[in-house]
Amino acid sequence: MPQDENRIIAKAKAGDREALNELVTSHWAYIYRLALAKTGNPDDAQEIAQDTFVKALAALPRYKETNATFKTYLSRIALNLIIDYYRKRGRAPQVVDITEYTEPIVDKSISPDQTVVQAERREEVAKMLALLPEEQRQVVELRIVQGLAVADTARIMGKSAAAVKMLQQRALKKLKDLFEENGITGGEAGAG
Predict the structure, then answer these.
(1) Rg (CA), the chain
(2) Domain 99-181 belongs to what topology?
(3) Is pLDDT above 60 for 189?
(4) Which of 40, 102, 146, 183 has the fewest CB atoms within 10 Å, counting from its CB?
(5) Can you tell me the distance from the alpha carbon of 94 to that of 7, in angstroms, rounded to the nearest whole number?
């Protein structure tokens, strides 16, 4: 996909409107979910997603291919806009229940009882994540929840790959300790 995406980006740089539309449509949902997860407000998330694409497309002529994906490039822009969003409001980011944007499509093979248990488990995980220091929580969200590679996470956070690995290791140890302190064991609180 990156090679195909690089061709699409090249076409978009040349002014191909179809290529521009393809870039937006292929990444819109991801950027919107990221903004929604960070703001907790659908209207603000919509605005941040729009602003992300306006900035990215305006800067497209200066965009250079790197080892980072275009998705990483967009994520960095979105996270900067989210930081600006909170600076303008003069408040800290709201802790958002990550279960809202990571909720899988309802599996009909799972009983209603199992669905409730899984929702409770996700809630427990979200509560424990909220107790982590900001950078550790961000690493867990990017690496584990969103499934980004170490290199992409490092670029988004402006850190080295080694720093991301260390933050992730500390975050997972802290989460393990928090689960133990709260009497939650692996069998009772899967990340499901």
Answers:
(1) 18
(2) Arc Repressor Mutant, subunit A (1.10.10)
(3) no
(4) 183
(5) 38
